[in-house]
Predict the 3D structure of the following.
Amino acid sequence: MKQGDTFNSISSLVSSSGKFSLNFTVRTIDGSDSSFLSIMRIKRDANKAWIANPDSSISPSSSPLLTLDTNNTLKITHQGGDPFVISTAPQTNDSSTSVVATLLDSGNFVLQEVSSVNGSMIRVFWQSFDHPLDTFLPGMKLGVDHRNGHIWSVLSRGSGDNSLSPGPFSLDWDPNGRQLKMKKDGVVYCTSGVFYDGRFEFILPDVSKKRYNFNIVSNQNEDYLTYTSKNDPSDPEPEWVLSSDGDLSDYGAYGDDDIIDVVHCDGYNIVGGCVKRGRPSDCVGKFGDDFEIKKGYFKIINSSSTNASRTASWIGTDTIDCKANCWQDCNCLGFDLSFLNQTKDARCEFWSVDCEFIEDLTANTSFVFQPKSPHSPPHKKIDATRKWFWICTSVTAALLERPTHHVNGLQNDDGNISIHDLIIFSYASVLAATRNFSEENKLGQGGFGPVYKGKLMMGREIAVKRLSKCSRQGTLEFKNELILIYELQHTNLVQLFGFCIHGEERMLIYEYMPNKSLDYFLFDSRRGGLIDWKKRFSIIEGITQGLLYLHKYSRTRIIHRDLKASNILLDKSMNPKISDFGMARIFVHNEEEANTNRVMGTYGYMSPEYAMKGIFSIKSDVYSFGVLMLEITWELWKEGAGLQLMDPTLGDSCNGDQLLRCIHVGLLCVEEHAANRPTMQDVVSMLTNENMSLPVPTKPAFCTERIVVTTGIAGKGPENKAWIANPDSPISSSSSPLLTLDTNNTLKITHQGGDPFVISTAPQTNDSSTSVVATLLDSGNFVLQEVSSVNRSTIRVFWQSFDHPLDTFLPGMKLGVDHINGHIWSLLSRGSDNNSLSPGPFSLDWDPNGHQLKIKKDGVVYWTSGVFSDGRFEFILPDVSNKRYNFSIVSNQNEDYLTYTSKNDPSDAEPEWVLNPVGDLTDYGAYADYDIKEVLYCDGYNIVGGCVKRDRPSDCVEKFGDDFEIKKGYFKIINSSSINASRPASWFGTDTIIDCKAACWGDCDCLGFDISFLNQTVDARCEFWSVDCVFIEDLTANISFVLQPKSSPHSPPQKKIAATPTRKWFWIGTSIAAALVVMWFCILCYRLRRTKLILSAAKIKGAKIQNELLDFMKSKRPTHHVNGLQNDDGNIRPHDLIVFSYASVLAATKNFSEENKLGQGGFGPVYKGNLVTGQEIAVKRLSKCSAQGTLEFKNELILIYELRHTNLVQLFGFCIHGEERMLIYEYMPNKSLDYLLFDSTRSMLLDWKKRFSIIEGIAQGLLYLHKYSRIRVIHRDLKASNILLDEKMNPKISDFGMARIFTDNELEANTNRVVGTYGYMSQEYAMEGIYSIKSDVYSFGVLMLEIISGRRNSSFYNADRVLNIVGYAWELWKGGAGLELMDPTLKDSGTEEQLLRCTHVALLCVEDNAADRPTMSDVISMLTTENISLPLPTRPAFFTRRNNVETDIITWKLQLISINGLSNSMIAGR
């Protein structure tokens, strides 16, 4: 249609190919005919794909006309009414263009500007596809336009006489969940499922990929889904229609395929994409409850009930409304649907649980709700057991914060994950969260395997670390990471949520880090600008704190062993999180170093003693940390040019002095000798204290490369030479080698005292416009070529290094054969040790017939890459191959070869495949060094991951699956006449396991072998044993490799033995007895080990205990009846939270005997206990008259379970028995600090060194609570009696009953309930109820003064007034007599200066104004760094006190009430 064109009700506008038409159609609405402008596909019984005026009906008798007027307005005019404007285009003064309205072949009606010359589209002003109704055609969009907020959505129409009014159902695109959602009145009824492999999970899974090409677009302008047809001529064009009752169908299909039938989504059914809508919280219905259609009727059994039947009529509704309403009503037992029972009006008649359903096959049908457990009314009386049951339930719920709808309690991966819950995730939930491990969800790749972003059903984001089958990190590292990271809790350590095991697959599920890893920013010129110096220093500081925690303050001392930039993750606030604990090792706290034969980690970050000798310690991590800070050469520092290290992107944001200090500390960390490196605690002090003088670093380890006496091209792997010109002709470095291209075009290496080594010679050329040059290309290819003298373009190549690969396969190289000259492109491994450039036994070849790569050893195939399909090889890094490599196979009469290129992902390093001396094929270009294949595992019988089974002789009885088992024992010759009993053979310098297994595998008589180097002999050799021997198991002997075939081993033929009945039954009986013994043994082992942490779903300790707790809560049983919780008599691991039986507590404490009583606190008495295994415990028994009640009991359980630090007391578990509540802790043999400190005799045990160590430990514990635990905690009751001392006098902060959790950005809070101990409370807390981390700092200051003086807070006087310890210390300090505060037992200790400094810091901590008090981080710096100048303290708060009674108090605002009734304590200001 052009300007001025019109068409009436008998005209049509047809698309160019005749697929769609635009015309007026007549429909009857509310008994009257109405005319609508519609687009329909030209076919029989066509659907109205689009309607211009669905809400503005026009009478057919009013002669409607569609017109595009001269003002570019597209409108419908009609007699007797205003025109219906569809859209108006702006005016254009360009005579070469015009505005037209066009119906396209896609069914899209567009108002557009086109060229007047050729009719090509210039721009679109309006299109019908932007305004869909109930039809979704190919090319339409569902989603949102972020520029104008417009939403593309399909909306159902009404039914009956008003069929064009908006209906209740909509089809929307969820850009966050990347799935389609069907809603009714805004409530989601079903989803399409995740998009994976070109289709949606629940959209016609059998035909979707054959019929639709889906396309998802997400950018800053728009988020939408669209689709096109596969253009199969035998298949009609798709046409999705959302019907009035919520069915989504494809009307384009011959059979009208139902895509989604929402009638089945009843609110409880989740099959086929249906979404479960929650029932009220007090309903007892559980997952799987269903409505059953039964013949019968409901009978009222309680006639007084007002709920027996509630009739409601909703005309035009169906079973969806009835089911949904019944589902939402806890009292609903079922309903009748009257139109099913032949009544006139459609209505739901509900029946309550005061009815019963009587089945009667002659009656009508009813919908009966069948919950798993029946509803029962609540009982009025709640006894004491029930009361404590609910208390225990609330405690456990607070600890777990998990849904419990799954039977085993572990499959709760769909919802909230609380800190330190270790969850077993189902494979289905991981698939759903990661959209079937889609490429768009992939975050990166590490040595472990790929990492994917995921989103659980409740919205929590996760990161899934998926173990690659090709990874060299295996089960050991997987278990290591699970065990270690579960034991650790620090804000600078990544949080592990759980794991998933599915067949051969292993996955670790972590918190998601939105800013990826440090290397993602640090090593990218553009992204590096996003982290200024302030952020970088904060990241350095966070890493130091995380390492310090691992080395010193976690309960298990950890050496990380793989600290590097890619293992530092960054959260949304750019806070660093140390990750990847697969290679970490646990040390005991007094262990200095260890040795390993298995050196693991990343080259460049390894300390010299670890890389060269396998010796590792905390100083190994310090070295890695130094490398992480540096990235600098020694020469720059030596020449005073340290600032040249600065990243240019830092610009003016950088603090030069601070940067130079970091470089200085970094160089100290990479000292060659471990003893010269600082500890992480020293590093923290060096970095945070600018006035601290630093020692001068010496030349670091690994400062220079080894001397290279070959001419080659260096790759990026650890000392990998991508190509070497003269591998077989080494030249002495002292002979002054020179690479030259002479006038004869000969490329050669000359050297003194020897013949030149000729690389290649190019022919002479007489053309002056060209020249011969040798060029190193960016690909790593060194070429001798003829180039144009004008523009240096290549004319021809005479020779190239890529034609002569050694052990490295770079992008652009070839593997295969040149048929013209017979040259073979192949990789050949190098030798090892002192002859590292000699040819090795392994090769990597291209098989042009099988179209696969092969690794061979001495010509025998050990491994193949598998077939090439879908752009990748079956066994070459299947998880990352498509993202990392572009493979290309060329086959013609001249050559057959494989080559590859990089995907050119700027965040991913260039590939660099290396075949090493032991046959491992590795991609050293990757940051994490991907293992493509470790041929060590290809033993001749193993075919996993591409390994090739090498045939045994034809007469062997071996079958697939036979294996070598490593056993303790020895082979004994039973046939001394055999000459094959032992055949020693020595192969020096080989991988003996591969050789021995291969040789034994190839000999039918071989039963097994010993490897002498494993048994401490000098020479490495294989000693074989034949089947004329027998293997004797002996746990005290050395190990042997024993071949264990599935069938009996080969043996010489025997004489036939008659199968007599006696012999037959003897063997049957023996077999049965053996089976019973094995079964009994397995059951016994299971029962003995069921409480230990292993990689089985039922054996993750934390999850197991929590699951059993839930079972206990539901069963309302006392704790001693809980199966599986009677583990309080065994070994207690850190962080196990145990429900102790009352009987076991009685036995441990000797019935709470007086001789076992340790003391008395505000909570109640504390008893020493001894479990049956000898484990000592402390039992804190809540007194019934204690002011600390259920709230404090729950608080302590929740908080101390979440905290992990060596200076915090460890909670083992709890016990509830009737009205009694008990907390069970680790036993502290030196009791509490006040027990020693305030006793004139016992205080002698605390010299100043121990006291300062105690002060430092308390400070570190508080710093952890305030800053570095994942939950920020204010203790609120820090005092001497709450500091426990272990056997080494290490302090442990205890009693968290009054503690409070803060969010990270919360500075202070207010309470009406002031709790704590008088004398330790800050003024703002005691007087106004305001508390913050500075409240604990005040308490710590008071505690420091007590430790210095050895006297209680309330024991100070002077002539005119009563002073507390704060006032007394201030008076002495002000008068210059600070040393008079010192405990007399400390005299002559020679530590007066340190003691005065502690007094100074303590007075700063008790400042009147909370803002003037230091943080605990500042306190630690002040205490540990002597040359920091301290600010002068001012007069403290609570300078005097009215009386000398120290008591625990609970106050309500300004009223302070003593709990023991002895006195009222009034607070006087200064």
